[in-house]
Amino acid sequence: MEDLRRLPIGVQSFRSMREDGYVYVDKTRYIHELVTGSKQYFLSRPRRFGKSLFLSTLKAYWEGRKELFDGLEIMELEVYQKNDWPSYPVFYFDFNGKNYQQDTALEDVLDKMLLNWEAEYGGSNDRPLEDRFQQLLRLAVEKTGRRCVVLVDEYDKPLLEVLENEAREEHNKAVFKGFFSTLKSYDEYLQFVFITGGTKFSKVSIFSDLNQLRDISLTSEFAGICGITEQELTSCFAPEISDFAKAQDISEEECLAELRRQYDGYHFYPRSEGVYNPFSLLNALADKDYNPYWFSTGTPTFMVRRLKNLHFDLRQFADGSLCANAATLTDYRADNPNLVPLLYQTGYLTISDYERRGKLYLLSFPNEEVKFGFMESLLPEYAPQTYPGSGKDILSLRRRIEEGDVESVREILTALFAGIPYTTDDAPFEHYFQSVLYIIFTLLGQFVTCEAHSSRGRADCIIETDAFVYIFEFKLDKPAAEALAQIDEKGYAKPYGADSRQIFKIGVSFDSRERSLKEWLVGE
């Protein structure tokens, strides 16, 4: 019987990865580059992108676990083959899997970690947390004769979890300010420091005070340090790709093309090689199916709410206007109305291009999993009546469109807009009108060819199925006849003149005062 290959879904321990026979994507070459370069680093990557596994690999390296690296790329360097690997005292701070909503939750987590190390190196626990940490660094150096390694996994978890509680967020920032300032004042006791997180919060001492940290989040040499590249996918998972293609009854090339569309596309440096989301990719290979694995593990409710409350123009996701400079992209302040840095750092946007003259990073959705998952999380916030089975949901609308049932399409859209609630904020209906249409037609793009446009000279939306072509033009507080006339005057239907499919030209008028779809005219 052929040996089953173990895919490392959710495996965050390098030791387990190597000892328990999981398929390992070798990233050890980056260790050599790090340890022979600077001394203290920061890396930002989205959640479930392999940060914890890489930190665990660093831990094994600094603990001298040479046997775990046998056969890996780092061992090809002569210096690592011949020499013994010394063991350094490692302080590994893991902020994953904890609840930080309680008053002293962060202090309790730190206290528990320090107590474990105090049992090993000595020291008293009757002093402030930062004093105990400093004491531990001194004692560890005295006991081992080697300087200390500090590894911090997901430092920002205690901050992100309390974003909607300003008092708790400020409290946790203050705790970090006192505790991690030790990394600067006690540099003589430190051999190596590596801090990871999803978000780089400004005004947090870990960055404002620790100006010696080298931020490698936007560097070309470390663009592939987390995630899986195309070359790594095809070289490490060839058997899984073959089995996947057979299960889907498609060629391996078609299988890879769909994997790219769904899970590839992350770029952490302009024009760098794209990387796959490893969590989604590994799950897809295991299930032999394409599902929204990464998005289903955490819906960004606070972000969705803020996008709506700030009246964010959702059309920017498609028109190429989202951009940021390096300082903005790598920094985030909770009180900043600009959500672009947070959307980038948490993985909902990625670098699509770079404008050298203005030194601007152009941003977009990385792939279809993120694009459609994000839109699906937005729709209930903007249009609560669109839940599955309501008759106003995307699947119902798709079915009517594919049937050519124009009257039912009108009824669904009319009912959908009638269900949009009046709000207490100052959001104009135009914002809702544009946002809901953009979300709906983006989501329809999963099933039919659907293009929503905002530029002049093109129809607002064109939907193509096997049998029908729908050309929509929308007007706010203007007659539907004007919208229909524009379709003819601008020649939006001309590209389909020789098309055998039935063409529907639809002019739609929305009323901002009544907040409703008022008129619907169809021409053929």
Written description of the protein model:
With 524 residues, the chain is α/β, with parallel strands linked by helices. Helix content is 42%, strand content 15%. It has helices spanning 14-19, 29-35, 51-62, 78-82, 105-121, 129-144, 157-160, 166-180, 182-185, 205-208, 230-236, 238-248, 252-263, 278-287, 293-296, 301-309, 316-319, 326-329, 340-345, 368-382, 394-403, 406-418, 429-444, 480-489; strands at residues 40-44, 90-94, 148-153, 190-197, 214-215, 228-229, 275-276, 323-324, 350-355, 360-364, 449-452, 461-464, 468-476, 502-511, 516-523. A 5-stranded parallel beta sheet has the order 2-3-4-1-5. Helix 16 crosses helix 20 (368-382).
Topology:
Layout: H1 14-19, H2 29-35, E1 40-44, H3 51-62, H4 78-82, E2 90-94, H5 105-121, H6 129-144, E3 148-153, H7 157-160, H8 166-180, H9 182-185, E4 190-197, H10 205-208, E5 214-215, E6 228-229, H11 230-236, H12 238-248, H13 252-263, E7 275-276, H14 278-287, H15 293-296, H16 301-309, H17 316-319, E8 323-324, H18 326-329, H19 340-345, E9 350-355, E10 360-364, H20 368-382, H21 394-403, H22 406-418, H23 429-444, E11 449-452, E12 461-464, E13 468-476, H24 480-489, E14 502-511, E15 516-523
Parallel strand pairs: 1-4, 1-5, 2-3, 3-4, 13-14
Antiparallel strand pairs: 6-7, 8-10, 9-10, 11-12, 12-13, 14-15
